[in-house]
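User: Good morning. I'm curious how S-adenosylmethionine would be positioned relative to this chain. Could you predict the structure with it bound?
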Amino acid sequence: MLIAILLSGEHPSIPYSEVNAILKGEEVLFNEVSRFDQLMIINGGKEIFKILEKRGAYIIEGGRLIVHISNISDLFYQCNNIDWSFLEGRSFGVRVKRIKDYWREVSSVEVERKLGGIIKKCTNSKVDLESPEVWIRGIITNGGIFIYECNFMTNRKKFVERRPRKRAFFHPGALDAKLSRAFVNLCRIKKGEKFLDPFCGTGGFLIEAELMELEAYGSDIDLRMIKGAYRNLKYYGLEANLILADARKLPINKVDGISTDPPYGRGTSTKGRSIKEIISNFLEEVKGILRKNRFMCIASPREVKIEEEARKKGYKVHEIHIMKVHKSLTRSIIVVENYEC
Ligand SMILES: C[S@@+](CC[C@H](N)C(=O)[O-])C[C@H]1O[C@@H](n2cnc3c(N)ncnc32)[C@H](O)[C@@H]1O
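Assistant: Good morning! Here's the predicted structure, ligand included:
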């Protein structure tokens, strides 16, 4: 079946990679069909709905694609020719969302009204705009309008509830919960597998990993951070394996995935070493810890050129995402494989 996935517009590339990484990590059979602005079409089975709903950070909702109409003038003609019988005996609601400024000449309210009328005429189903049994969603984006049955929605409020300032222990270096979750997802790891954040700080990545039922390990060179991470995990009723250790000499056995945000040499402590030196030694150390052909997601200020360092150490660089944080900090987030042919 073709599945439409509505993505957040907060970053131009991470949301698409997150979908791919979650499904590859969970070893689900699927293939990507096409990408549009904030919308992705994939081919796969309905088990995908639950997985994306539980794990997604930059994934908003999605479901079975009913029709893709690329030409405005065909819109109502095509909708009249769809078999809507799957809605027979169920209440439904129609909501249309426009991404940016696409198809400005079409009124989304008008499309909602007309589409609702067509479906009602074809099925005799009841319209319910409060809590229908089925939401029919129309997304207007650069490829036209995509109409799908909304089969899952992620809970976006949860990330706000877990923002760093709401936790028991706060430190300014902590990333927000949504981005922390995306980092964990990008290392393509499956439920039950062993996950490591070797610069764990306040434990933001460990919280997200534990909530996704990974076996989480975290280490940090600073005892204050280890204690803080423990308190933060406990605050959400979670536990992880916490270790006081230098990431350049890790007392940890094999892991299935690593996601981490090393110090930037700004607010966070580097204990007198340059960031480049720490990252270079860390990449060397972790070659023997991350299982072969498994993935690591790691960030650093863009000028560090972490992708070059990773290549020098024999990793295969799969993705580079650029994220502007403020005037003087642009972050590179890379996904590498501990490659062995
Ligand atoms: C950017 S912060 C990590 C933030 C974390 N993602 C969070 O949610 O709080 C970087 C962390 O690396 C730690 N660190 C610095 N040098 C280290 C080293 N050589 N080994 C392990 N941890 C180190 C710092 O103590 C700091 O907590």
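The pocket of S-adenosylmethionine is lined by residues 171, 173-175, 180, 199, 201-202, 204-205, 220-222, 225, 246-248, 261-263, 268-271, 278 (CB under 6 Å). The domain at 2-153 is CATH 3.30.2130.30 (VC0802-like).
Let me know if you'd like a different ligand tried.
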